[in-house]
Amino acid sequence: MSRSKPPRWLRWTLAGAAAALLCLMFGITTAKADLSLGPHEATYAITADDELVADLGPLGTVVTDSPLPLTLGVRITVHEIPADLAAVDAASFDALAGDLDGYLQFFDTPQQTVRTVATALVWDALRGAALAAVVLVGGAYGIRLLLGAARRRELGRAMAARTWEITASAVVVVLVAATATASAGPEERAALPASPVFAGTALEGARITGRLAGVIDTYSGQLVDTYQANEVFYAGAREKLMAAWDARVAEQDAARAEDGATASADPDAPDYVTFLVVSDLHCNTGMTPLIRDLAESLAPDVMLNAGDTTINGTSVESVCVDSFASAVPDGVPFVVADGNHDSRLTTATELANRQVVLDGEVVEVEGVRILGDRDPLETRIGGGTVIAREETPAQAGERLRDTACEAAGEPGLGGYTGEDRVDLLMIHQPAVGDAALESGCVPFQLSGHMHKRIGPEVVGYGVRYVNASTGGASKGNTSVGPLRDTSQMTVLRFDPERRRFVDWQLVEVTPEGEAAVSERQAIPPTVPLPAEVPDEAPGDVPGAGSTPSSSPSGN
């Protein structure tokens, strides 16, 4: 009795499905991502044992349930822990005390770490599957050429009669490949009791193996206590912030109603472009929910970041950039001028989050022309401050001045009137903008770096405003955990008809967890240019003033 052959279309469909399944499984089971876990660099790899395993080398492992679907798990290999560590004692943990803030960032925003890791693994899995598909198709085409037409027909008839056996074999191969990726010893780890020290945290239910199990209850208490204090502080501060904001908005609405303001005279009319300004976040991801709440209530047209998003610009701080990016409402542009504590790695993560990173060219955002650049200096904790580019801060300022003056056109009565004139200069260090302000080519400058608010004040022929640290960072203190210093954000409004910033509003959260929102305050007018401008360089305009209060430093 002859075996019936499935129709040709079914055979090709089964072959395609089997090939796609093999390629997808290859991509999934070989997916890896080099990211971070707390303060450490780490490699993430997908497994098939339905567990999340953090391999801490000689310290042991931390095991918890996998967040992935089906029976997929993740193995995290943490680097930087010495392989020759012979004992785990108080001295060993004291040596890692400086990493506490990094662990706190992980505990504080575990969902952000999970999102970042998941995205990276998915893209790597897709790349792996695509590569496997290319190899598979290329190999099949090569074999087809080698066999020739007659031999292909002969093999085709033989394989058509065994379609179901071949399909079953492909499924078995996939299952074997998946099993081979499982981490070692899941049954042994599953029998371990959960560590009570993680109760109430993102790692609740985690099980500990190795030397780490003997000391985790003693030495992790500091971290968990700090985490819990952090949660309580920012939850309270968040509530106070929104209460203060709602009260101020209600007061502003009542004042307008009392004055009988019409819609056309309403200062909240959409004629104004609203900006929310942050600066010097320094990886304090505890502020992320507060920034998000304020942004959602304010509904700004643009968000501005005047730099120093990270502390050292390392790859493990990318999760901080991702966290702050999650606070930006959908569709709202986020413009950044990187600071001296940021790096090219920071910039790459910002660009991956679709942020507008200023690089020395004029960009137009919501009708506002913005000029800025990354800081010419780099500061690293323990390594000091060095010039990171082929120019000094003064030279960077002169270059930005020339760019602004070229866009401003010819000077005339009352100032530069070119249609392409820069509306805003945003750089991290205030002093870098001196030359541009003194030239008259820039009417408004925004900076950070000083960790204290300065202005708005008239400098030269423009106005400068320095935003304090949104991360609550003060000189010599870390910015992670409950605030050490007052956190500040600023609301700026821009009139596109007059092409000038009209007012500012300060939003503060104190180390005591209190919050305050100031009234809107008018931005001082700029100094008019002289009636006659001599044929001199823009920076030599007579009568231009300067403010020496913001010399470059390593803040």
Characterize the structure shown.
This protein is α/β, with parallel strands linked by helices. The protein is 37% helix and 20% strand. Strands 7, 8, 9, 10, 21, 22, 23 and 24 form an 8-stranded mixed sheet that branches. Strands 1-2-5-3-4-6 form a 6-stranded mixed sheet. A 6-stranded mixed sheet has the order 11-12-17-18-20-19. α1 (8-29) runs antiparallel to α4 (110-160). The longest helix is centred in the first third of the chain and has 51 residues, at 110-160. The termini are far apart.
Annotate the secondary structure layout:
Blueprint: H1 8-29, E1 32-37, E2 40-47, E3 51-55, E4 61-65, E5 73-78, H2 90-95, H3 100-108, H4 110-160, H5 163-180, H6 186-190, E6 207-208, H7 212-219, H8 221-258, E7 273-278, H9 288-298, E8 302-305, H10 318-325, E9 334-336, H11 344-352, E10 356-357, E11 363-365, E12 368-372, E13 377-380, E14 384-387, H12 393-408, E15 411-412, E16 415-416, E17 424-426, H13 434-439, E18 444-447, E19 454-459, E20 462-466, E21 487-495, E22 500-509, E23 515-517, E24 521-522
Parallel strand pairs: 3-5, 7-8, 8-9, 9-10, 12-17, 17-18, 18-20
Antiparallel strand pairs: 1-2, 2-5, 3-4, 4-6, 7-21, 11-12, 13-14, 15-16, 19-20, 21-22, 22-23, 22-24
Helix pairs in contact: 1-4, 1-5, 3-8, 8-9, 10-11
Features:
555 residues, alpha/beta, 8-stranded mixed β-sheet, 6-stranded mixed β-sheet, 13 helices, 24 strands
Instruction: State the helical fraction.
Output: 25-40%
Q: What is the tally of beta strands?
A: 24
Mean pLDDT comes to: 76
What ranges have pLDDT less than 50 throughout 5 or more consecutive residues?
81-100, 183-189, 532-551
